[in-house]
């Protein structure tokens, strides 16, 4: 199901809105509407933390105030994204029913307080949530001002209570069938940890079992599944009453405690909360890392997503809260749109007077006026979104894919191995991604459950754990003409962290890459080796050196130092109609740049920039059947000029553009005359 | 009530004395008296940790040994400061009555052990303390050798037990009257934390409520109030039996877990334990920071205080225990007297043979003789105190006041804001204070409950939280001709951490300073900006930049860098007959030096030195109706010369002095011929 | 009892072997034997973590599989070191009997999991262990393939449960007899901690008693005694059934949580697990520190020991796992033999497929073949061990002794003193040791319970705590002509951490050293002082400066800086027929080098090298009645040449050798023609 946008609404512009904090100030509620309109807002997220107002006593619902708010907004052309209130339990509830409060990994139950900390298993909590979700849906599900469900808020965290652990045992029984199978996969003969009854299984905790990695991995998987199940119950509750409204939930940035890929099938629309920490000076690297996560969000459903939260100025929970420099609000907001967002929204509309987020940036300050930097930046952005509304609905079509598998991440981090001080899986992915970003290559981010057909280039660094038949997908992809880049630390274990026997990369990948990875030398921070290429180029390597033997592959580069000097460090293997590259060591930025520049050219991978873009500038493509949109964002803090090929014009003004000049922090959106 | 000093006793010189550890060694007890006399001691603090000797079994008091000690001391001209023993519970008691042992913030009860860790609420402990305090007072309250009560020892710490939490709820009911009022002030609609019954309120803990800052602040306030109440019960118990004896309790250095300003009305005399960590080389900054805390102690009651503990050599609880270099014992001890102490006392007289403080510096070492560095330093200091006894009773009269409000400190630290990595409230106060210290300006330290009349200059940096009507006191002070220096981060919240609406500084201070503080840019450590003054001088700034708009004030300096270059950074506003300066950014040492040098000159603020003193040297004034005393202390480690204006003579020798020359670490006390 | 080696077996070569993980893979078990033989292995340690296989349900023993394994090994010339399985409890047991799971110092009981974490007091666990140990001994104690008992595995850790605490109280009653005695020794009058009943005593914990150092020390002692008692029960159980088999247990490196010297009388043979972390480049310092610990192991019983575990490549539990560079496996393994090991064994033979140690280096990788670096290194080493088999049984005879007293270490670390940021007792011992190591001086490591007769030189740095009459042994040793080197921080407390009165060094050592140590100046990291010698040489000192006065000694060096410049820093005292040196400050490497070079020459202490060896090269002597063996190991990573005096020939080839040339990392074993 798609978002059904009201007539005349294109890109969404809005904020979390908490009128429940100001019900005793009708003057302020009135002023809010005026300020929203002044800022060109067309939607707000309401009710996220309002449970205590919606159900002040057990079983007593008070929804009239909310109806008045939604109606007033609607009358003023502002649409409502309506939240289910499960993110924060009312105090009367957490005090009365202790089972809804989580237990930590010390098996100590939380006291009441904070938020996002309910037990996902508690039958009582699930029932209370089902009831209020249903009641809200009954009352508001058909209101013309309500356009989307915002399920809960930033699902997060883990509970170790007995109810959760019991559910975990059930999950394991379903997965493994027999204890024999579980014992085999978890290799419990190690240290005499053979389970002889299901009841002997406990979640991994610091003062219990930590060394059984299969247990750890399955506990992580169970946690995701349990949260997805909780969310599914919420979506069922609202869909039962309002089947025509789509649902989303807001994800978080760099959040890998859960596997977000497991949520995608239960959501109609993906949305997320993006909080880069912009500094003064060059913000290129910060931009790369958020570009990657915007791409994750878009890739989950391969369709436009929503930027559900961001801040107009600064957050208040970082060590240091630098204000956004002039132009940065435009650049950062447009980055989201450039990567596929159909909205720019904020946390929050008006600052709370008290409690922990009272100094978090918002559209309206405690001061109350619209003559502030924050407000002016928001207003200007709102105007820009109106001007470029036509991009709404266009999508990103990528010919390159990067494999980011969260279960693989968990496994790498859970295993004691060559560099316990840091394997840097995500950093490594980002290093590969950056090389493509610098050329404006649209990239999908996939995991091991995704399909690979349709791509020209697949990049799969550090694929330690293989699951879901991904090894076969990789073989098929290359056999049918695809180009694959793999690296050290690939194909070591099966989905339960059980090592492949017979040599790495296992599960048939030795054949695909044409190398045998015998062992790994780990380097201390600061230690270096190098790759010497056939043509004499030399790149630095660090952290890990896989010692490999050729089994059919051809050497493209060798180690420059140490006792394995001269041995292969970078190889390629012809396999079927395609090629599989194998990189044995973590390389420097220049290596990735040269490698992908060559591959993009050779494979004619779609990209927005002829060659490298100016430092700190990104170029993104969205497209419809008819046209392409080119989004340029400058994060460098310096004026930058981008040379364009083809005919482009500004979307906002219609002016033709030959050379795009961007100020310190800036953004420009262009459209092609035709595709 | 004042300390009633016996005939012939002027400045006190003595130590904590624990004969209860040596009752089986009469030879040592006898030797103690000889050594005390050799060191020119005239008083000791007795009984601090003697409860297990005083009440070896429940209800059985054994006081005879103590009487013998007190009598023997008295016969030898040594007076007793008698402690109530509540600082350390006997083991039989903590084992029998678990309620007297604290619970930590994890709700886990302490086991027996350590000290200063009783529950301040426990009715049983309060009763046991009341009984033994009363019994001690009955027995010794009229002994001519006893001159002062030493209530407990270094009150400290917090208890989270159910008894304390129940008392906290009662305290809240008294403060707020209704839950509606509490919910409003704590802004509990945020995250649905509305309380619907008093029983739902718990103390803030890591696995419970942390984000409700009003709760956090009130819990801190309650803790102080509960300890003061405990102390008040102790003072009542001893005063009931010995109404003519004054009471003190010994405070700690840099201790802001409680608000010491709340203790002052229940004490006759303020005393404290001062443990600078002197190093080799220049100790100027360490001296500044202890100068400030001596001034806090004197300012609490605006009368001379007592230095109750210090060490002749080094403590044993620091990462590294450097010995006091030659001369430092004199300089450090005289610093206390210079700032208003009528005593120099030590922890402790004789080192314990075992347990955790056996290597803590003391007058008498395990060695036992008087031919040690420690003993000779103490003896020399004792001689000096005898020679300058006439300064006793003279006081410091300040024309400048520095606002140090502990509740404001708590609020700044509790709130998540622009620099969670360090707002540096105390460091900022010390930076302002240092500029005055370098000119020998006597300074009172006041909090928001103090009066401001009588001062020429009031310095109130980072006055984030306003309470007790202090905003009105500030307005009155300036209106009537005073000069006020305020800074960024002022006037953001009311006493319950609820933000002022309508613009900062709130509560009427916008009018007073003539500026509107729109927002704050926080800088990372190492990042800099600057203030450019009208006359071209330039000062570095760091950490925080308030972006302000003039609302009547005049600009004295502007920002030198960044996107707010040229905007006001330092302003002054004429208000009534006075002036209010507003400093928008944290400035460097030169700025404060120049600012206060100018203001001291312009306002003719009393000060001891014409211009700046040599680096690391301080000059302090004490005065009586008739004369002034000038105390010079050199902490630089280098010889230093101080030029004097007026006629001065040494108090110890009577010699006239024109140029004071001080060796590496040194102290010199002068008197004016007349005032 | 000695190890009874089968005919034709000299040095042992083998590994931990866990066939219980592969019982469903007879092909792999078969291949294991082939690979062992290829690697010249003659013994394996079996059954260490096999309890769950040996007793799959309570009371049901299944030993047949083990018999088959032992028999098969034996048939192939491979002997078994048979483990008792107490190191890891089966899950069914820890789930059923919670008392066998430890409690942490927070009094929280562990959940099932991990290993080496049973309660040493639990009567149930002791009984279960006794039963299975007895059953194993009955079944296998007389098997010709079984040559040694491997009691449990790496005993470690502490339990705070009520059973342990009760046992602790009994232990104290036995030690002190009366509470009066205990109160006196622990100096409990400090802070009113006088015990009035035994039940009031609890183990030291973070939220209880920490400051009573006597309690802390006795708890550490009790812990060791309780573990020794547990081990003794295990040895009794196996000896009852198989009295002719010797017992060992495998110690750990740098493990001072227990006092290993207390274990020696209950073991027939000492063995240990040695895991140096070799890096690239010069590994000299790592070699020194493991040389020292090899010497500890040999010194415990003054007879050859066994290297029970080591890794052929790298461990997997360090921050970074660098592979052993070429040659290092030989050098590191031969270092063990050089210092007295009669074996080289590994953890483990074949890598586990899963769980926490699956990436720990092993002889056989998951790959399974013998064409790997790891395997080839092991095979080559096995060949070398065969070639030099004749050294087996030869011993090290030392004329120098270094005092390393674990109780002294505990006391230094437990006491709050001059440098809580680091007293560096072990580092200091190693600094002294290194000077001897560089000359190839054989060194015994002794503690305060050992005898000193027979040595020429005794080195006793930082002998803070005196016990077991060691002060008398030191006096006797010097009086009878020995040379003693002592330092600052010596003779401060008695065995219960109670300070000596009357001056340091106490207990008569003032007389021996001829100095009075008045006080100690502690230096911050980075601060320096120096010793200026009579002849003008100057050495740097750091960390601690004892200020001493001569009481008969003669000054050899004085302080070069600070207020104690010119005061004695290094002295010598003639005492009886010997000499006692006293070093007042922690000195630099050059000082120790010159000091011990002089003393070795003067006293004609046995040593392997004429002068200093090349950097990073060690030379060790083992001897029999007839000959000397000279072991040279190069850890420098650079080629090195050692000049030899006397006639030597290679043990492996019989070639005569005049100049020994060693490659980057290398080892060479020579024998003298005759002694």
TrEMBL record, chains A, B, C:
Enzyme class: hydrolase
Alphabetically ordered keywords of this record: Glycosidase, Hydrolase
Enzymatic reactions: Hydrolysis of terminal non-reducing beta-D-galactose residues in beta-D-galactosides
Annotated Beta-galactosidase trimerisation domain residues: 398-605
Family: Belongs to the glycosyl hydrolase 42 family.
Entry protein name: Beta-galactosidase
Gene3D superfamilies: 3.40.50.880, Glycosidases, Golgi alpha-mannosidase II
Entry's EC annotation: 3.2.1.23
Organism, as annotated: Neglectibacter timonensis
Residues covered by the Glycoside hydrolase family 42 N-terminal domain: 16-387
């Amino acid at each position: 199901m798609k978002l059904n946008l009201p007539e005349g609404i294109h890109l969404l512009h809005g904020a979390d809105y908490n009128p429940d904090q100001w019900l005793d100030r009708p003057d302020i509620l009135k002023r809010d509407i005026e300020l929203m309109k002044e800022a060109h807002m067309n939607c707000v997220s309401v009710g996220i933390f309002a449970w205590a107002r919606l159900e002040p006593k057990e079983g007593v619902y008070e929804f009239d105030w909310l109806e008045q708010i939604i109606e007033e907004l609607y009358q003023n052309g502002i649409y409502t994204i309506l939240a289910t209130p499960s993110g924060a339990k009312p105090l009367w509830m957490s005090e009365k029913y202790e089972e809804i409060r989580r237990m930590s990994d010390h098996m100590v139950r939380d006291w009441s307080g904070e938020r996002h900390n309910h037990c996902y298993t508690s039958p009582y909590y699930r029932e209370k949530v089902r009831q209020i979700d249903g009641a809200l849906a009954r009352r508001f599900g058909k209101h013309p001002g309500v356009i989307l469900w915002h399920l809960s808020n930033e699902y997060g965290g883990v509970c170790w209570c007995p109810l959760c652990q019991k559910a975990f045992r059930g999950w394991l029984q379903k997965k493994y069938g027999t204890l024999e199978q579980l014992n085999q996969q978890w290799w419990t003969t190690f240290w005499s940890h053979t389970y002889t009854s299901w009841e002997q299984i406990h979640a991994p905790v610091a003062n219990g079992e930590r060394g059984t990695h299969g247990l750890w991995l399955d506990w992580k998987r169970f946690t995701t599944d349990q949260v997805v199940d909780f969310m599914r119950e919420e979506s069922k509750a609202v869909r039962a009453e309002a089947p025509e409204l789509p649902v989303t939930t807001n994800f978080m940035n760099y959040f890998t405690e859960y596997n977000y890929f497991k949520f995608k099938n239960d959501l109609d629309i993906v949305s997320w909360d993006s909080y880069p920490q912009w500094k003064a000076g060059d913000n290129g690297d910060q931009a790369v890392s958020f570009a990657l996560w915007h791409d994750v969000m878009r890739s989950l459903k391969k369709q436009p997503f929503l930027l559900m939260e961001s801040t107009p100025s600064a957050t208040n929970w970082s060590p240091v809260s630098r204000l956004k420099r002039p132009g940065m609000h435009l650049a950062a907001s447009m980055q989201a749109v450039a990567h596929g967002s159909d909205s720019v929204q904020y946390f929050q509309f008006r600052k709370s007077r008290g409690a922990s987020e009272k100094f978090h940036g918002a559209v309206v300050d405690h001061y109350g006026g619209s003559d502030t930097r924050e407000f002016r930046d928001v207003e200007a952005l709102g105007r820009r979104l109106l001007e470029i509304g036509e991009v709404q609905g266009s999508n990103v079509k990528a010919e390159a894919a990067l494999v980011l598998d969260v279960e693989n991440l968990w496994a790498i981090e859970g295993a004691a191995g060559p560099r316990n001080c840091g394997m840097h899986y995500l950093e490594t992915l980002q290093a590969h991604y950056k090389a493509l970003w610098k050329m404006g290559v649209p990239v999908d981010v996939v995991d091991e459950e995704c399909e690979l057909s349709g791509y020209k280039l697949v990049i799969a660094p550090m694929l330690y754990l293989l699951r879901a038949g991904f090894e076969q997908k990789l073989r098929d992809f290359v056999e049918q003409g695809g180009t694959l880049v793999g690296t050290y630390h690939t194909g070591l274990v099966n989905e339960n962290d059980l090592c492949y026997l017979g040599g790495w990369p296992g599960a048939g990948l030795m054949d695909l890459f044409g190398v045998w990875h015998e062992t790994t030398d780990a380097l201390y921070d600061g230690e270096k080796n190098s790759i010497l290429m056939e043509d004499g180029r030399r790149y630095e390597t660090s952290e890990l050196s896989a010692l490999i033997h050729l089994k059919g592959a051809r050497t493209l580069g060798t180690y420059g130092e140490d006792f394995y000097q001269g041995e292969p460090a970078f190889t390629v293997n012809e396999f079927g109609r395609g090629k599989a590259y194998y990189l044995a060591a973590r390389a420097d930025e220049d290596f990735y740049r040269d490698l992908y520049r060559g591959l993009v050219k050779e494979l004619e991978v779609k990209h927005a920039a002829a060659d490298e873009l100016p430092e700190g500038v990104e170029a993104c493509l969205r497209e419809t059947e008819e046209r392409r949109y080119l989004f340029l964002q400058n994060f460098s803090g310096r004026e930058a000029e981008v040379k364009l090929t083809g005919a482009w014009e500004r979307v906002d003004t219609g002016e033709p553009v030959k050379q795009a000049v961007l100020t310190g922090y800036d953004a420009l959106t262009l459209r092609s005359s035709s595709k």
